[in-house]
């Protein structure tokens, strides 16, 4: 079964203030990766319903992936996931099957 992204490319581009189309394929990959990351760290049914905080977490994580394309950075301060992503994961994580 093919993965269908829930988050719209146009919304991610607006979030990133991108007006060109050159990076569209790259952004689609970051959207898929962000959604897959959230699903892997929460519940499989996370994207079955409307949830604004999950949508925001996808935007933050896709933007983080876009801005930090390499696995290592020289001369930069190390940072964690963007504020909000960890909190969304914790709020939607299913502990021992209890939500």
From TrEMBL:
It comes from the Bacteria. CDD domains: gp6. InterPro entries: Phage_gp6-like_head-tail, Phage_HK97_gp6-like. NCBIfam families: put_DNA_pack. This is Phage gp6-like head-tail connector protein. It comes from Tardiphaga alba.
């Amino acid at each position: 079964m093919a993965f269908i992204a829930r988050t719209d490319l146009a919304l991610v581009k607006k979030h990133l203030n991108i007006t060109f189309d050159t990076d569209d394929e790259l952004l689609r990959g970051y959207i898929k990766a962000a959604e897959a990351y959230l699903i892997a760290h929460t519940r499989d049914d996370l994207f079955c319903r409307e949830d604004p905080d999950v949508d925001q977490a996808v935007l933050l994580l896709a933007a983080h992936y876009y801005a930090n394309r390499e696995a290592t950075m020289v001369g930069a301060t190390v940072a964690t996931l963007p504020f909000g992503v960890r909190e969304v994961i914790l709020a939607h994580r299913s502990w021992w099957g209890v939500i």
